[in-house]
Amino acid sequence: VSVDKDLVSYKGNCGNISSGVGPFAIEKGLIQTKEGTTPVRIFNTNTNKVIIADVQTEKGRVVYDGDFAIAGVPGTAAPIKLKFVEPAGTLGNGLLPTGNVVDILEVPNFGKVEVSIVDAANPLVFVKAKDLGMTGLELPEEVNADADKLALLETVRGLAAVMIGLIEDYTRSAWETPGIPKMTFVAEAADYVTAEGVSISKENVDLLSRMMSMQKAHPSYAMTGAMCTAAAAVVPGSVVNQVLSENVDTQFIRIGHPSGVLECGVDYEENGAEPVVADTFGFRTANLLMDGTAHIK
Question: What is the pTM of this model?
Answer without folding.
Answer: 0.88
